[in-house]
Amino acid sequence: MKYPDIAFEPLFTWVNRPRILFSPGVRREIGFEMAQLGGKRAAVFTDKGLVNAGVAEMVLAEIEKSDLELAGVFDEILQDARIEVINAGAAFYRRVNADCLIAVGGGSVMDTAKAANILIGSGDEDFQPLADQAGLWENATPLKPHIAFPTTAGTGCEVTSAMVVLDTKARAKLSVTHPYCNSDLAMLDPELTVRLPPKVTAFTGVDALTHAIESIVSTGAEPIADALALHAIRLIFKYLPVAVHEPENIDARGSMMLASTMAAMAFGNTMTGAVHALAHALGAIYGIPHGLANAIMLPHVMEYNLIDERLDRFRMIADAMGIEVGNMEAKAASEEAVVGVKGLLATIGLTETLKDFGVPTDRDELQPLVELAAADGQIGYNPRYVEEEDIVSLYLQAH
Ligand SMILES: [Fe+2]
């Protein structure tokens, strides 16, 4: 099908950090690569789940074989990048005299490492005032050498210059940006993802899908991001069901890892939209894992966004899913994108609704959730304006 006319702002920027190395087993190059970046003594950031599953060890073993010194392993990271854990991670880095850091984990680990690196660079001990500033671009300088090994194929935050931190006191998720916070090198080793349980594989994969879809329809859409996001959708529709049902299929794991990174390169530049805004609120108040919250909200927000100015973009999304929409009328073609997402969710076993997490249906009880979603920075990039009552009805539809 032909690429539709695109009405994007006459000016956009494209951020293209970091370098990426992809190969099954690429972790074996860690010593050489960190030496290139000038790091000699590494602090490894990970979590206990990855330590217990032996995934952290897959990287630690390669550090041991290399000339890179291991200063210590910080494995206290919990679900979501929490401010108190970020502070503890930076204090750990200083205590063990590290001069570089290596993140081995999913979004929570990588975002914690990104935030800790900012804190280390600032010389401060508490990330809260920095998180409250949100945009940390003024006078920003490069941070400590940082290599990321994603262990999920979903968040893509090894490449984005933003992170989402959980303010546990305010029960809110805050987006913080810094031009050098992402890794200097993203080492994409799909062997690190083969032990990921099917459920987590499924919902982290849908996080990547949500990044791609929201990027293409966002108010920040532009052609470079389109190229990456559309191909991410092709890869996800082909390989996510395989990765869920055949966890050790390295081709599927590798393709999902690339899709995740590509979708993140796209949304890191265009931003996302209402799915992410509503999902962040669900994560902050009800602890729903990010990818799962996205999976629950995605079809409903897509339906809401089927406005005239975006029908061609949804047709393009349906086409990338492999659906024959070239000759269909615009509205019908765009609806196929929603059908495609629902079909994928069923295939990979994501049938949860908000009811499963105790989210209320009472209007007053929903108010804290609604306020958080309405204040989320991503909602402004949604292609259709979202009022508070629209948020309420989206949450109710997802019940
Ligand atoms: Fe996301």
Proportion of beta-strand residues:
5-15%
The largest sheet has its strands arranged as: 1-9-6-5-2-3
Question: Structurally, how many domains make up the residues?
Answer: 2
Percent helix: 40-55%
Total DSSP E strands: 9
The radius of gyration is 20 Å
Under the CATH scheme, which class of the largest domain? Mainly Alpha
Bound compounds, each kind once, are: fe (ii) ion
CATH superfamily descriptor of the largest domain: Dehydroquinate synthase-like - alpha domain
Structural class by sheet pairing and helices: alpha/beta
CATH topology of the largest domain: Dehydroquinate synthase-like, alpha domain
* CATH architecture title of the largest domain: Up-down Bundle
Distance between the termini: 36 Å
Poorly predicted regions are: none
Q: Quickly count the helices.
A: 15
Mean pLDDT reading: 95
Shape: globular
Largest beta-sheet characterization: 6 strands, parallel
Order of helical and strand elements: EHEHHEEHEHHEEEEHHHHHHHHH
